[in-house]
């Protein structure tokens, strides 16, 4: 039996010397010490046919041979594993002397840039930034703003209704109602955000656009405070030479109401393509908060007064950047947006 074991040892050494890779080493392990069909496993199964003395001696010899074979297999496998790791490291090696790759960085949208600039100006003037829901009830969207039931703005042709009493807000003026309900005067807030109206998209209209609403409520506030605030804002926004003018206008939630214009930041008021030759650019609506609006939120109009104003960001953004179509701001064309880095 010892001759048989010596022959097995020789056969294994010969086969192990022919192994050239990890897969061959694995196959060699399965061939010799595999649990089901390994050569040594098969030899172990023949021990039952031997006498007790022969079985003991032969079992010892087979166990020694198995230990030798497993040690040799471990050496083979570790050698091939080390070679594989070295090859992998070589293939993944990084040349640190190569110049770095330039990855394009993201940047803010032009409307966001303009919005942040406006927010910074008003925050420096003592205003707080407020936000509100984009889906509102009739109360916040119309009733609390003194908009009567027969007003055309309440029709389905102008407003995006979700249900009979819920709609997408059509102006950020809704936020001033929330603010006055939450906080008592004195208060100074601005409310930038998205609004929605049933406008047919064209170069100057979009069903979704951005507004900034401003509100100040305090004792003794007059129309002069509104004019002074707007004049300070446009000077900081467009330069100290910028002038403002107020034209009487009607808005249900203010009395008196006025449209605000400012002198063209491009031509200084002499007339150009941006201001269509008039020298003035329309900013938005404004006025003294209507007493009915104050009463509706529990503020006594005999004790407190206030002013409100609103301006559209989309058209202002288009004018500042020389855009002839505000729809460009919403088309997500990377070629267009890359210009505002």
CATH-level-4 superfamily name of the largest domain: Bira Bifunctional Protein, Domain 2
What's the multimeric state? single chain
The 3D shape can be described as elongated
**Numbering strands along the chain, what is their spatial order in the largest sheet?**
1-4-5-9-8-7-6
Cα radius of gyration in angstroms: 41 Å
Structure annotation, total helices: 11
CATH architecture designation of the largest domain: 2-Layer Sandwich
- Termini separation (Å)? 85 Å
Into how many domains do the coordinates divide?
Answer: 2
Assign the CATH topology of the largest domain: BirA Bifunctional Protein, domain 2
CATH C-level of the largest domain = Alpha Beta
Number of strands: 9
Report the helical percentage: 40-55%
Structural class: alpha+beta
Largest sheet: 7 strands, mixed
What percentage of amino acids are in beta strands?
15-25%
List the helices and strands in order.
HHHHHEEHEHEEHEEEHEHH
Give start-end ranges of low-pLDDT stretches. none
- Average pLDDT for all residues: 88
Key phrases:
elongated, 11 helices, 2 domains, two-stranded antiparallel sheet, single chain, seven-stranded mixed β-sheet, BirA Bifunctional Protein, domain 2, 341 residues, alpha+beta, 9 strands
Overview of the molecule:
By secondary structure, the chain is an alpha+beta fold. The protein has 2 domains: 2-91; 111-340, 2-Layer Sandwich (BirA Bifunctional Protein, domain 2), CATH 3.30.930. 40% of the residues lie in helices and 18% in strands. It has helices spanning 2-17, 22-33, 39-45, 52-91, 110-124, 138-141, 173-182, 223-238, 291-296, 313-320, 334-337, and strands at residues 128-129, 135-137, 166-168, 187-196, 208-218, 244-249, 254-263, 280-289, 305-312. The strands form 2 sheets. Strands 1-4-5-9-8-7-6 form a 7-stranded mixed beta sheet, sandwiched between helices. A two-stranded antiparallel ribbon has the order 2-3. A hairpin with a 4-residue loop joins strand 6 and strand 7 (254-263). Helix 1 (2-17) runs parallel beside helix 4. The longest helix has 40 residues, at 52-91. It starts with a helix and ends with a helix. The model has no long low-confidence stretch (mean pLDDT 88).
